[in-house]
Amino acid sequence: MTNEISALINLLDDPDKEVYQHVTDKLISLGTTVIPSLEEAWEKSFDPNLHYRLEELIHIIQYENLLFDLKKWATDDKNDLLEGATMIARYQYPDLDVFKMHQQLDRIGYDISQEMNYNQIALEQVNVFNHVLFTLNGFSGNTANIQDPQSNYLNYVLESKKGNPVSLSVLYLILAAKVHMPVYGIHLPQHFVLSFHKDFILKNDEEQKIKSQILFYINPFNKGVIFSRNDISVYLKKLNADPKPEYFLPCSNKHVIVTLINSLISSYELAGISEKVRELLRVKEIIE
Question: How far is it, in rounded angstroms, from Cα 56 to Cα 215?
Answer without folding.
Answer: 50
